[in-house]
Amino acid sequence: MIVLHEYPLSMVDHVGFRRFVGALQPLFRIGTRNTIRSDIMAQYELERKKAIKYMAGIQSRVAITTNLWTSDNQKRGYMAITAQFIDESWTLRNIIMRFIYVPAPHTAAVISDELYESLVDWNLDEKISSITLDNCTTNDAEASKHGV
Fold first, then answer.
1. Residue 100, strand partner residues
2. pLDDT of amino acid 64
């Protein structure tokens, strides 16, 4: 529920939520926010490994898109990296590979290093058909040392 509805992890500390859960099932003990976070990260790692294994078996090339933005309240930069490809039944598929913090300054070198690390991590560095970047002003730089 927390992941599905994008609720904050601190929700498990709210008195009203604890009362609600206790009213539904008095024997159920809700975990701490650290326990919930650990459970979410464990599930994420499991799903990530399944996705990487699946991607290793596809025969098609992969198109990569990125979107970089800065959060208003934190003033921190984030990048989403998405892979698009045609599967064996000719269906267009999309997989969000990573959603990562990108340290400032958001230069072409920093962005390309993060992107290259993700491509290598997913073993896609040799399956790429194209890479499309958002209209970030740093994207007009020359190709990086990785050739990305």
1. 79
2. 96
